[in-house]
Design brief:
With 282 residues, the chain is of the alpha/beta class. It has helices at 12-18, 26-37, 79-93, 103-111, 201-210, 212-217, 224-239, 245-251, 255-258, 260-263, 265-280; strands at residues 2-7, 41-46, 64-67, 97-101, 115-118, 124-133, 149-156, 158-162, 168-172, 180-185, 188-193. The protein has two domains: 2-199 and 261-280, Class I glutamine amidotransferase (GATase) domain (Rossmann fold, 3-Layer(aba) Sandwich); 201-255, no CATH class. The protein contains eleven helices and eleven strands. Strands 2-1-3-4-11-10-9-6-7 form a nine-stranded mixed sheet, with helices on both faces. Strands 5-8 form a two-stranded antiparallel ribbon. The longest helix is centred in the last third of the chain and has 16 residues, at 224-239.
Length: 282
C-alpha cells in the first residue's frame, strides 16, 4: 500500500470558486487519477493554504507528496503561500518524492532558490504547444514515453522565470523555457511540470471559463462568447473523443492530449520511477 499526501494549492476562496465550474476540487481530481494509476494508493487530502489545516498523517508515514495547481501567486507571498512553501520544504528535507504541476512547480522552484512570477512571454491558456525535451531532459525518466514534441493542457499566467541553482530543466517550448523540471533539496527529489497532465479536457474547459477575462485580455479570444464556444468544443470532445474527429482536427488536439494514459505519463512515471523504488528500498 502506498500512502500519498495530496495537497490542494488553493485557499478556501479558490477552492470554492473552482467548485462553481467543477464537481470536485483540484486535490480530489488528483486523488482520483492517482488511484487509477496506482490502485494500491491511499490518498490523504490536505489544504495547506488554510491556517487551521492539519496533516492527516505525519510526513514520515507518507510515501510522497503531490501538490496541485492554484489561483494564488507565489510572488505575492502571504500566509497561504508561506504555509505551502513550508510544507514542500519539509517534505523534501524529509526525503520524500514530491510531484507538482503548475503552482507546484513554482512553489518548489521558489523554496530551492529560484524565482517564479508573471511570464514575460505571456500566458498559456488551454494547451501548451510543441513542448520539447532539453538536453538535460533527454533520457530523463519523468518524460519516459513522450514523443519528440507534444502538447499538454495548460492554464497559467505565472511560471518559473529563474530555475533554482542545481536544478535540471527537462523541457520547454517557445512560450516558456521551464515546462518540466527536476529539483533536489536535502534528500528529497521534486519532479514537476508547468503544464497539467492531470486535467481532462472538460476540466480544461471549466478552467478557461473561470479565466475568461484573462484569455480575452491576452488576445487569445476576441470576446468571452468566443471563449465559451472554444470551451464548449473542448467539453464536447472530452465527452466523445472517438466520435468527434472533426473537433480534434479543428482544435489541433492529438492523442498525446486525448488519450488519458498518454496525457498522464509524467504522473505515472513519478509513481513508478520515484515513489515505488523508494518504498521498496525502505
Amino acid at each position: 500500500m502506498v500512502h500519498l499526501l495530496v495537497a490542494d494549492g488553493n485557499d478556501r476562496a479558490g477552492r470554492a470558486r473552482h467548485l462553481t465550474v467543477c464537481d470536485r476540487t483540484s486535490a480530489e481530481t488528483y486523488a482520483g487519477i492517482l488511484r487509477t494509476l496506482a490502485p494500491d494508493a491511499v490518498c490523504h487530502l490536505v489544504a495547506p493554504a488554510d491556517a487551521d489545516a492539519v496533516l492527516p498523517l505525519a510526513l514520515a508515514e507518507c510515501d510522497a507528496l503531490v501538490l496541485t495547481g492554484s489561483t494564488l501567486h507565489v510572488a505575492e507571498g502571504g500566509p497561504a503561500v508561506t504555509r505551502q512553501c513550508e510544507l514542500v520544504r519539509a517534505a523534501l528535507l524529509a526525503g520524500l518524492p514530491v510531484f507538482g504541476s503548475c503552482w507546484g512547480v513554482q512553489v518548489a522552484a521558489t523554496i530551492a532558490g529560484g524565482r517564479a512570477g508573471r511570464n514575460p512571454r505571456g500566458p498559456e491558456y488551454g494547451l501548451a504547444r510543441a513542448i520539447r525535451r532539453s538536453a538535460a531532459g533527454a533520457g530523463h525518466p519523468l518524460l519516459d514515453g513522450r514523443p519528440p514534441a507534444w502538447d499538454a493542457p495548460a492554464i497559467h499566467d505565472d511560471a518559473v522565470i529563474d530555475p533554482p541553482p542545481g536544478s535540471r530543466v527537462l523541457a520547454g517550448n517557445d512560450r516558456l523555457d521551464v515546462q518540466a523540471i527536476e529539483i533536489r533539496l536535502g534528500e528529497g527529489v521534486f519532479w514537476g511540470t508547468q503544464y497539467h497532465p492531470e486535467l481532462d479536457l472538460d476540466e480544461v474547459a471549466a478552467m478557461l471559463r473561470l479565466s475568461a477575462t484573462g484569455v480575452v485580455e491576452a488576445g487569445l479570444c476576441r470576446d468571452e462568447a468566443a471563449l465559451h464556444a472554444y470551451a464548449d468544443a473542448l467539453r464536447d470532445l472530452h465527452g466523445d473523443p472517438e466520435g468527434r474527429p472533426d473537433l480534434a482536427w479543428r482544435l489541433g488536439i492529438t492523442d498525446e492530449v486525448l488519450v488519458p494514459e498518454r496525457r498522464r505519463r509524467e504522473i505515472k512515471n513519478f509513481l513508478d520511477r520515484l515513489v515505488r523504488p523508494r518504498r521498496a528500498h525502505g
